[in-house]
Amino acid sequence: AGWRASSQVRWDYTSANYPVRVQVRLQSPDGKMWIELLPIDAVYWMDRFTQGLRVGQRSYGAVYAPNATIEQAMESLVIRPARGNVQGLKIVERRPVDPVRMAQAFKVQNVRGEAMAMRVRYPLGNATADEDFYTLYTAIQDIPYTGPQGTSHEYHRVLLMPHAVGAVDGLLPTVYPLLGVVVASLQRDPAYQQHMQAV
Description:
alpha+beta; 11-stranded mixed beta sheet; 4 helices
């Protein structure tokens, strides 16, 4: 009772691959506990035509990061955008997560990859905040191009279902039951899913 929810949908038409970024935040009345559903992101690289590309450069909605590990992708594309302006932030724990269970919880089907949780700690007012970040990093998606110069390949890995659970005053374990309720309540528009598959 009393939890507040806010959300944001931001369109970026320069991001051809991933043009919409959705973010949702739920927070307790006293501000001591929160859940955030964070925007998806992606990395890409190519086996040819890489001249002039810089690691970390964003192009068409994905970040050029050849063979980036899940730890590198999470730090730079999930944690830093969400909390990069927080002073004193430290990653205090990293642990693998079962990607199948995470996909099932979010009702995402036919996805392969690896999943991870990272706990961060930082000062928040006069308290210390503990926050767990999660994401599923898809298996490499090979996108071939065949043209006059032969066949080249572009590779994508997407950070799906990124979310965070945080609290101060040691309250973090008490937030997890509510996370289950929130995730179970998510519904995808079937008409949009059909349209996306058709496109």
